[in-house]
Amino acid sequence: MAYSEQVIDHYENPRNVGKMNDKDGSVGTGMVGAPACGDVMRLQIKVSDEGIIEDAKFKTYGCGSAIASSSLVTEWVKGMSLDEAQDLKNTTIAEELALPPVKIHCSVLAEDAIKAAVADYKEKQTKK
Ligand code: FES
Ligand code: FES
Fold first, then answer.
1. DSSP codes joined into one string, 20-61
2. In this structure, is the dihedral angle defined by the CA atoms of residues 102, 95, 108 and 110, taken in order, positive or negative?
3. Nearest ligand to residue 32 Cα
4. Ligand 1 within 6 A of CB of 64
5. Which ligand is nearest to the CA of 34?
6. What is the three-class DSSP state of 18?
7. CA 30 to CA 58: how far, in whole Å?
């Protein structure tokens, strides 16, 4: 199976790989696994007091499409509100990366990860 140029670009030059430490409750972390293949993705967002995502980082143990999907999402969500990030659709990711049908679940993983990160951040705010 051939990977698209977009996938290879993100795979070879992943954006925003890393980990953020949450010192003040401004970081939300989403950790999700793909039942289809056992891959794992961690996606983190740093949110401003105004509710805007200022930074995003990811670490993905998985295939090229999963790495590319999470890399792309970290680029996209920077500057978004939490609601906008939560509305991100895996189909938009899959389209941008030209993922073939067998790799659609990799983009679902990225959608799940950003949703989980937003949910984690929101839950932290209720405990503040
Ligand atoms: Fe999980 Fe691709 S099947 S690495
Ligand atoms: Fe399983 Fe990509 S995340 S093949």
1. ---SSS-EEEEEEE-TTT--EEEEEEEE-TTSBEEEEEEEEE
2. positive
3. 2
4. no
5. 2
6. coil
7. 9
pLDDT average, residue stretch 12-35: 94
The overall pTM is greater than 0.90: yes
Q: What is the mean pLDDT of residues 24-44?
A: 92
Atom of ligand 1 nearest to the CA of 63: 4
**pLDDT score of 1:** 59
Give the chain's length: 128
User: Among 120, 113, 32, which Cα is nearest to 71's?
Assistant: 113
**CA gap 65, 20 in Å, rounded:** 23
Q: Which domains does the chain have, with CATH numbers?
A: 5-119 (3.90.1010.10)
Nearest CA, atom 3, ligand 2: 106
Query: What number is the average pLDDT over the span 64-71?
Result: 96
What ipTM does this complex have? 0.74
Bridging pattern class, strands 53-61 and 27-33: unpaired
72 closest CA partner among 26, 8, 120, 3: 8
Output phi, psi for 125, to 5 deg. Answer: -70, -35
